[in-house]
């Protein structure tokens, strides 16, 4: 009777000549090959199968220290060289959805098998499986290190594709023309910065793993594959850093222009105030209710006062023009 572990585990075994693809069986399937130069790839979805993990380790004569490592579900990013196997822990972003969740992945690697354990169901490795089933390229002629290279390359490419879809750096001038510094806009900016930082953190974690894999000394393990991966992940991190700088530049430019706009408004209001202050002063004087104000008895006093106000206004505008205040 199949256990829940077996229902959530899948085995692929392949060699240059043939392959099989089926649900994993604790009783019938082994990770270690029987000297037929085949490669076994087992995928397990879920981390809560410690009894089954114990059976896997003991039944395949793997290093007992793996059980201690598998107990810790928050290892982050690590590469641990055991006696005849590698243990790789990777904290990766789930790129299937917009929520940018993360999951813990473990890889137990030897020259003739990879046991891949994922915290959550679903992956992006179908294209690798297709190459195995259809015997495309050289994957069925290579050992497990080449399969690990393909898996890590897939994770890096997923990051690149999701990153390009998620981060569309809007033209700075368009943003300035169209948007105002509302709370919604500020939330959008902070959200974009958080996404950039998430991708950078995840990419740096993968780079740390790749760099450590470059230095591994394990029989049958070719480090050259991972040197090429390091160049890929470094390129992605460089792009992320560039976009972070561009975003910061856009934010600074946006608020500089907003500040300039505010200054222009304040200058316009100040000019209007300066023009109307003397007019208000004159109107205030002749609006007083004293009886002994000779100008109030003048026949053309009202028109004279309007003329004086007009002259004051024109003179003020000419002065402002010469000083290039507007």
UniProtKB/TrEMBL annotation:
Protein's UniProt keywords contain Ion transport: yes
A GO CC annotation given for this chain: plasma membrane
Membrane topology label: Multi-pass membrane protein
Coiled-coil ranges from the UniProt annotation: none
Coarse class of the protein's main subcellular location: membrane
InterPro entries: CorA_cytoplasmic_dom, CorA_TM1_TM2, MgTranspt_CorA/ZnTranspt_ZntB
Transmembrane segments: 269-288, 300-320
Pfam families: CorA
Segment forming the signal sequence: none
Record GO terms (molecular function): cobalt ion binding; cobalt ion transmembrane transporter activity; magnesium ion binding; magnesium ion transmembrane transporter activity
Entry-linked PANTHER family: CORA FAMILY METAL ION TRANSPORTER (EUROFUNG)
UniProt similarity note: Belongs to the CorA metal ion transporter (MIT) (TC 1.A.35) family.
Protein's name according to its UniProt entry: Magnesium transporter
Organism field: Flagellimonas zhangzhouensis
Source lineage: Bacteria, Pseudomonadati, Bacteroidota, Flavobacteriia, Flavobacteriales
